[in-house]
Design brief:
- The protein is mainly alpha-helical.
- It has one domain.
- The protein contains four helices and two strands, in the order E-H-H-E-H-H.
- A two-stranded parallel sheet has the order 1-2.
- The longest helix is centred in the middle third of the chain and has 26 residues.
- The termini are far apart.
Length: 101
């Protein structure tokens, strides 16, 4: 179990199969718009949280690309973990392209 604030560290170098990574950076616009309506200091706390989460995701994506340069990395911005539903056509297109290789 991870301690609060600790990052998981997958050893990407051990992966031998072809990889498609669909990564989400940012948050859905409706969520961001909601956060903008929050009163201070809540808005400031949420801004700091979102900035930290984005930094962690970008750092992990950079390490992934470095350790697994053969992987295909697709970045979807302003989506959430339901991106395969909300952005179905993009996800399906990327999956088909990766499977055709």
């Amino acid at each position: 179990m991870l301690e609060p604030g600790a990052e998981a560290h997958t050893d990407f170098k051990k992966i031998k199969s072809p990889v498609l990574s669909i990564t989400v950076i940012g948050f859905p616009s409706n969520m961001v718009n909601y956060f903008k309506t929050l009163p201070e200091p809540r808005r400031k706390v949420m801004d700091e949280f979102l900035t930290r989460v984005r930094g962690i995701k970008e750092k992990e994506m950079e390490r992934f690309r470095k350790e697994l340069p053969s992987a295909r990395v697709v970045v979807l911005t302003n989506a959430d973990h339901h991106c395969f539903i909300e952005r179905e056509s993009e996800v399906v297109r990327e999956m088909r392209e990766s499977l055709s290789r």
